[in-house]
# Entry
Amino acid sequence: MAESLLAALVSLNGPGHYFHWHWIDISYANLTVIALMVVTFVAALFVPFPGRRHKKETK
Amino acid sequence: MSESPDVKVAPWTGPQRPYDIIKEGTIAFVVVAILTIGLALVFSSPDDPQVTVQQWSTKAPIDFAQTALAELNGTSGTAQYGAPYNTASSGQQLGPFTLAKWLGATIPVNTVRDFVVDPLTDQPATPALSSALTQWKGASATQRTAWVDAYTKASGKMTFTNGTVSVPTNAAGPVPVMINTLEQMARSGALDQALVTQSGFYTSNFTLPLLFLADGSYLGDLAQQRHLLGTQWGMMNETGNYPGQAWLWLYTFWYQVPPFSTSANADVQVWGIMMLLSLLLLLVPFIPGLRSIPRWTRVYRLIWRDHYRAQGA
Amino acid sequence: MSSTEIDRQWTTRLRHRVAHRLPPEKMLPDTQPAYVASWIYVFGVTTLSAFAVVVLSGFILALKGPQWWHVSGIGHFVNSLHLWSVEIFFFAMVIHLWGKYFMAAWRGGRSLTWVTGVVTFLVSIATAFTGYVSQTNFDSQWISTQAKDGINSTGAGSFFNVLNFGQMLMWHIVLLPLAAVVLTGLHVLMVRAKGVVPPFEEKEEAR
# Structure
């Protein structure tokens, strides 16, 4: 019972999918991870940090 | 001492804001733990079953027999490898440096003995095998070479019918029995065991079976289907649709472009480049130009925009 | 015993040095410079948290040994935790590296912090690699037989045999994690001792 609950909800097994462009050949899984990294990095730069508003700055 | 703004910065004497490091750490841990559990529940993880020599010789009997022959006639990848397995070649070179050769054959592998003769000797004796092994062991090196050459010449017409490997030659002495018995041994699963237990009962070293397996085409064919070959950027790939070692993108990249894509010394050249680049990354704080890019690109203006706004106000 | 004699003891001198370099208010601070206000700062602690999950899930796998996860649903789930925490670990660490680069976080005597960070990154790659070859499945068969050529070509193969499962497992669960923990510890202590790098001073620059 516990074991079946722990089985994957979305199976990533089965033939892989690849992005092929000239000599670039990368799995969509890796491409997703790398794209997410870039998006996360850019978001971290631009999204306002919550603590900023209330300026409880002490000297 | 350098006074460059890429090296020096005055200690901060400006305003402080409250900061709870323990709370931050706890929240981060809980978030990451929940995210991990979520990903594990949704996607699980890949576990393609291991390949055995038994499976290989059953699914691709000719490939197995041809590989066994290559171990015997010294044309297999392992037989011609050089250090650390043997001295058959000087191995890869980085300019004038033969790094592997210098460090020597510390993991000696004799493909004839380790992959063919010793496993056959471990087999329960049948009259045919016993006499073949006696014949082989009693023969001169020249005689053995003549037998193996005769078998190799005829091996283009190798067949596998009714569970038997045959090659049309009568000049190969004990070699047909040896190859055929090794095939039977492999198909029964006994060769898997014989290859790992050569060093005794307990073992955790799979050098021999892995080298043997890698000398054949079967493992590589499976890897190609799974898009794992070096020429397929396979180093960063995982089986199925799982993300792999994306952090190896630069390492695997070099293998795709000239001159490395066609170089016989690609491995050592790419390792050399990666070590150099790693050293550059390590030494960024000390390398003029490289350490100034952050100041020139001004990405930091985004990170510290409140600070500069407060300063400008 | 004179107090100068006590002051000269190795133990006393070490204690004074530690207390001077890392007083409790630096070790466990309750304030942070006002400029430390960006999401980019969360990726260091995210990396540390992922590392903790990697180690904890690794501990559970260690309890039952290297074959368990092939035969048990729970084992497979723990393996999944181990895999995904590693993916998060590298994900966060690389963003942390990008962020620290663009802050030129080595300024003000922090170059050793950068250096330990890069070494930790390289050690982590080696740790992950030895994990991949210790899976005892098709992946580890293929990865080890491929990687042997690269490692052998450097000469390292003569003492670091990627086809030796026992050796790789030991590196993966003892030597490399220990190195990663020690390096990470040093890295964090350096950050605490030196504080977070201040912004570039722009007063003299024409704007």
User: Anything to note?
Assistant: Residues 95 and 121 of chain B are 43 Å apart (CA to CA). The beta strands of chain B are 16-18, 159-161, 164-166. Chain B has a mean pLDDT of 93.
